[in-house]
Amino acid sequence: MGRHIIRQLATTIPVLVLVSVIVFLFAHLAPGDPITALAGDQVVDEQVVARLREDYGLDRPLPVQYLTWAGNAMTGDLGYSFNTRQDVSDILLDRLAVTVLLTVFALVIALSVAIVMGVLAAIYKGSWIDYANQLLAMIGGSMPAFWFGILLILLVSQRLKWLPASGYVSFTDNPIDALRHLILPAITLSTGYAAVLCRVTRASMLDVLHEDYVRTARAKGLSPRRVNMGHAFRSALLPIITMVGVEAGHLLGGAVITETVFALPGMGRLLVDSVSSRDFPVFQGATLVLVILLVASNTVADIAYGLADPRVRRR
Amino acid sequence: MSTMEQVAPGAAQAPVSNVKLATTGNRILRSRRFLQKHRFLTIGLAIVLSVTLIGLVGPFFYPYDHTEQDWMNILAAPSREHLLGTDDLGRDELARLMVGARISLLVAVGAAIGASVIGSVIGLFAGYLGGWTESALMRLMDALYAFPSLVLAIALVGIIGAGTWQAIFAISIAAVPKFARLMRAQTLRLRDSDYVVASMVAGASPLRLISRHIVPNAVGVVIIVASSTAGFAVLTEASLSFLGLGVRPPNPAWGSMLKSGYQFLDRAAWLAVIPGFAISLLVLGFNLIGDGLRDLLDPRAR
Q1: Which residue in B has a C-alpha nearest to residue A152's C-alpha?
Q2: Helix (H), strand (E) counts: chain B
Q3: For labelling alongside A43, which of A154, A232, A273, B100 has CA 20 to 30 A away?
Q4: Could you say which DSSP state residue A30 is in?
Q5: Under an 8 A CB cutoff, do A153 and B255 touch?
Q6: Do A258 and A150 form a contact (C-beta atoms < 8 A)?
Q7: CA A303, CA B271: separation in Å to the nearest integer?
Q8: Closest of B273, B209, B256, B300 to residue B107, by C-alpha
Q9: Measured between CB atoms, which of A147, A250, A272 is closest to B276?
């Protein structure tokens, strides 16, 4: 088991190294160097620019700059924001909590909805439940998250006045209010993801329901419920676990949009702001953290898959 | 090789005219049955074709120009005069929506073609050449795949700037790894298949093997993924435009229309609701085509 986990972790290292190179190059491929981008239209003294370049180490060769940046990043030092002069790691830590809270909340909603709907659709294949489920999954997968969020605001906040339309309250300040502010964003974020998971659940459950051992269980006279939940669902869960990890990018990408619609101070919002204001250190840091989150969730899914399926572990 | 090429056009013209007449009725019946059987594909095609038609032809038959400002009618509700109301500058919403369809379709087609061509070429090279090239290319694809696709698109637009073509490029790159992986798997599968090995033994050049045997047999799967990529492209472009990083303002992209409508949610909710509906519909159309083609070309996938 330990070897399985170590092997999974080892495969992520080259990916992470390449990702860090790409993220580093992003900022350096941008037209002009960061200092001129920072100065914008202001007329800046040549000497000041030269000194700033030296201060930020921008006059050294690219590979050296990369190694310095990557080395610092490993120790948690991602430099300083061009705009606010704050430590990038501090900004990221502040924002990370919001995004993690939002995505975990959305994940829980998506998983519960998708599993209930997908399993029901598979058990009652061909019935109206199945068709309604497929239709909903199709629509859920096609709607832009920001539009669905706006519809929710119109209905739940403006018309019914049940929940606040935007803003963020820290969990430590007021847990109940924090939750109230997160319900609509989490539902918004969960739709596209739930649609994908729902289709996977249905397909995987259908596969399993045709297996011999499920027929045997039925023939033994077990109640349909025990056959469906005890025998079929447990093995149908494997592909679902994989998809939860593989499609986690949906959640992280969606978080960018959702945070914008609901004015939540998360990583996604930070990324968009840093791109708009050409704040390269923040931009690099935010991108890196988002990618690491996705790689981590993929790896956790792979490891979980191994835990659930002994055949994978032994291979 | 040359004889085959000469035979091919002749074969296509083979049906004799009187036979053709007799089978016309059958053919209509058969195509109707086909469309009934493949409902997803039919509905998807109907949606995408209608949007295309409305986008291309609609503006010519509509009295308002999408840039024309009617200062007497600002944020006007839908009425007989302005069917879908007007925006904050008094521009007709329907006129803008129709022109916006062109942008969405351009991005959808552009990104689907861009991603499938670049990705397939990379996958083909990786799969066919193997060894060092394969490792290098596929590791790069793994790294790109590690980015949440919207995050990658945002980052790319951050470098190259906002704009329609920039958005197409960014979305293409975000979708490239999917095609590269797909094409590599197809190439590996086909390269070891008996008829390709036979052809290789018979002395066929690599170029001929690729163009005659591998590409034609892999193209079906690529098309399936390309059509759902078109849906992904519409959604991603709308997201970029909504974030203010996509198509630039005077051009009425649906995402930016939604964004500006969002500011007037309490006074003119339709300005946010209508473009979002258009986006959903077009994405749904492309996704249905993708699903329909999958059923049609690859029945085992279900």
Answers
A1: B273
A2: 12, 0
A3: A273
A4: S
A5: no
A6: no
A7: 46
A8: B256
A9: A147
In the CATH scheme, what architecture does the domain B47-297 have? Orthogonal Bundle (1.10)
Could you read off the pLDDT of B90-127 as tens digits, one per residue? 677 788 888 889 999 999 999 999 999 999 999 998 88
Query: What value of ipTM does the predicted structure carry?
Result: 0.85
Instruction: Single out the residue of A46, A273, A228, A31 nearest to residue A121, CA to CA.
Output: A228
Return the axis-axis angle of helices B93-129 and B131-145, rounded to nearest 10°. 150
Q: How many other C-beta atoms can be found within 10 angstroms of the C-beta atom of residue A52?
A: 17
Comparing C-alpha atoms, which of A170, A185, A194, A177 is closest to residue A103? A185
- For residues A224 and A55, what is the distance between their CA atoms, to the nearest angstrom? 71
Asked whether the CA dihedral B83, B85, B90, B92 is positive or negative, the reply is negative
What gap in Å lies between CA A154 and CA B41, rounded to an integer? 33
The answer to whether A144 contacts B149, with C-beta atoms less than 8 Å apart, is no
Determine contact, residues B231/B40, Cβ cutoff 8 Å. Answer: no
Q: B159-166: list long-range contacts, CB under 8 Å, 24+ apart.
A: B159/A26, B159/A29, B159/A30, B159/A31, B161/A31, B162/B240, B162/B244, B162/B245, B162/B246, B162/B247, B162/B248, B163/B247, B163/B248, B164/B103, B164/B106, B164/B107, B164/B246, B164/B247, B164/B248, B164/B251, B164/B253, B165/B110
pLDDT tens profile B227-279: 889 999 999 999 999 888 888 777 788 888 888 888 877 777 788 888 999 99
Nearest Cα of chain A lies from the Cα of B243 at a distance, in angstroms, of: 7
Nearest to B159 by CA among A278, A63, A22, A81: A278
| Weakest mean pLDDT among A28-42, A199-213, B178-192 | A28-42
- The pTM of the whole model exceeds 0.90: no
